[in-house]
Amino acid sequence: MRPEHEDLGPGLSTRLTYLFKRALLDLEELHRDQLATSGVNARELGVLLLLDGREPESQQQLAGHLGIDRTSMVGLIDSLEGKGLVERRADTDDRRRNVVVLTADGVSTLRHATAASDEAERRLLSGLDDAESQQLRALLVRIAASDRGDRPAP
C-alpha cells in the first residue's frame, strides 16, 4: 500500500532519496502493467534498447554499460535468448569471444515494448505538462551524466 505523502512529514517527504525511490517504485509498477503483453520486463527492455543499432558487444561490455554485475547479465541474456530475442554469436574479429545481437523477433518485440514503456513513462509524468516533462528529463540526464568525482565536498 502506498503511503500518503503528507503523512510522512517534511523530514522524509522532501528528501531526494525518498522522492526518487517513490518515483522508481511507481514507474516499475507502471512498466509491469504496460509491458505485460510484450513478453519482456523493464530490465530485459533495457538490454534490448542497448543492443539496438549498435555494433555487437560481449556480455561483459553490456554489463558494464548497464551497471549490472556479470552474473546478472548472464541471466538476462539467457532469458532473452530463451525467448528468441537475442543470439550469442562468435565475434567475427575474435572467434574466441561471443557477442550478443538482436534477432528479428527481438527487433519486433523491442518496438512493441518501447511503445509500452513510453506509455508507462507518460502515465508517470501525467501530472506534468509537456514542458515540465521535458525539463525533468533534461535535468535527470544532466545528473546522470555528471562527474561527481571532481566536486568538492560540501
Key features of this structure:
WH-like_DNA-bd_sf, about 150 residues, DNA-binding, transcription regulation, DNA binding, HTH_MarR-typ, globular, two-stranded antiparallel sheet, mainly alpha, 7 helices
Outline the structure in words.
Helix content is 60%, strand content 6%. It has 154 residues and is mainly alpha-helical. It has a single domain, classed as Orthogonal Bundle (Arc Repressor Mutant, subunit A). Strands 1-2 form a two-stranded antiparallel ribbon.
Low-confidence stretches: none
Number of strands: 2
> What fold name goes in the CATH topology slot?
Arc Repressor Mutant, subunit A
Mean pLDDT, to the nearest integer, reads 90
Succession of helices and strands: HHHHHEEHH
Name the CATH architecture: Orthogonal Bundle
Summing up helix and strand content along with how strands pair, one would put the structural category as: mainly alpha
Share of residues in helices = 55-70%
Largest sheet: 2 strands, antiparallel
Give the count of helical stretches.
7
The percent range for strand residues is: 5-15%
Shape: globular
- How far apart lie the N and C ends? 36 Å
In the CATH hierarchy, what is the class?
Mainly Alpha
Round the Cα radius of gyration to an integer and report it: 19 Å
- Assigned CATH superfamily: Winged helix-like DNA-binding domain superfamily/Winged helix DNA-binding domain
Strand arrangement across the biggest beta sheet = 1-2
> How many structural domains are formed by the residues?
1
Keywords: DNA-binding, Transcription, Transcription regulation
GO molecular function: DNA binding; DNA-binding transcription factor activity
Protein name: DNA-binding transcriptional regulator, MarR family
Pfam family, one: MarR
